[in-house]
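Collaborator request log, item 7. Partner lab (contact: R.S.) asked for a structural prediction of VTT domain-containing protein to inform their binding assays.
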Amino acid sequence: MIDGLVRVAGAVRELPTESTQQAVGYPSLFLLVALGALVPIVPTGALVSSAAVVAFHQSSPVALLLVFLVAAFAAFLGDLALYWLGQRGVRSRNGSRWLAALRGRVTPERLAQAQARLDTHPVSVLVLSRLVPAGRIPVMLACLLAEMPLRRFARGDMAACLAWAATYQLIGILGGSLFPEPWQGVVAAVGLTVLISALPALWRRVRPSRTHGASGTSGSEHP
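Returned to partner:
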């Protein structure tokens, strides 16, 4: 992780002019975020935060607004495309590779939790699914298995993408305001987003050990 941050620092230490950043940055941000929505291995949160850091140090008054709109719109289109592809698999007897890929990324326990929450608070669950790292795919799969119409999914996902873009942009603004150089803010923002994304995996590793320890203690008290 440290080596990755060092490489990021070296890449952005000497930034191009503002006109070049805008001509290349916004289309690149759109394509990468949309791709990250389809293929959930691209660190889209870090991309948005990094773009927000660069925009924070620009003189254009609308740079941050454009980063927000581009990121939210790209995430929204990517989500809709993935949901549409998943719907084709649900309706087909043979399924599809997209639906199979979604199933392969979700454990039965997490899917059951997403389905239970979706029954009671569908809109809020969709919004939180994008804010919680690794929470989007289980909720999307739950929506697909519940045969939620694309239009209804889009209404909830629009709010989710707006909240997601705003959250990661705020992380970038924080990084940009704390450091005088843009590359320093980018490194800080990337490091923070990587840490946030790693927290669920760390929690899942710690939680079973705690549960096992509690059950062992209970068994010793009640032989």
